[in-house]
């Protein structure tokens, strides 16, 4: 089976290769009103995602187990596909290194909203690169596919794209409902017939 993205409805996109669910809105921090532009320090991004709760109107449930994407330790200007954002950029969205994603994507790009490009499109990961002599964190640029270390000082602002482990419950297909109703109808018919025979 080939890896793919699946639109689960309700604002959630499932990646079956990584077994993670992305928020469909890549700049939900802005959309939700957390920040006017969606830019945050790493510390603020970590706190924001840890406290994030998103209601799923399709399945009538709330998910509160969001996190920032994890990264491998790859400093590369092209092709870091082992990090979650690198996999999303190069594998899922068809991005090309050093080329604006808005002009090189595949159809999966249209599954998402508010992907930041072509400028100031750096996104925080949750992976610390080093703590000495100062804190640096792995970041990924969605405008050009570059993964690099970024200083996590109080004046460094990047975007945050929320992701969670696993899949949201899939919406049953209409055929599933029809089969379930037919099965329940047969059970009810059999029970009624049994009661009718006992009464005789």
What kind of sheet is the major sheet? 4 strands, antiparallel
* CATH level-3 fold name of the largest domain: Mannose-Binding Protein A, Chain A
List the total number of helices. Answer: 5
Helix content: 25-40%
CATH architecture of the largest domain: Roll
What portion of residues belong to β-strands? 15-25%
The ordered H/E elements are EEEHHEEHHEEEEH
Amino-to-carboxy terminus distance: 56 Å
Regarding quaternary structure, how should these chains be classified? single chain
Number of domains: 2
State the name of the first-level CATH class of the largest domain. Answer: Alpha Beta
Mean pLDDT metric = 86
Radius of gyration: 22 Å
- The total strand number stands at 9
Q: What are the segments in which pLDDT stays under 50 over at least 5 consecutive residues?
A: none
User: What best-fitting shape do the alpha-carbon axes yield?
Assistant: elongated
- Structural class determined from secondary elements: alpha+beta
What descriptive keywords fit this protein?
200 residues, alpha+beta, Mannose-Binding Protein A, Chain A, 2 domains, 4-stranded antiparallel β-sheet, 3-stranded antiparallel β-sheet, 5 helices
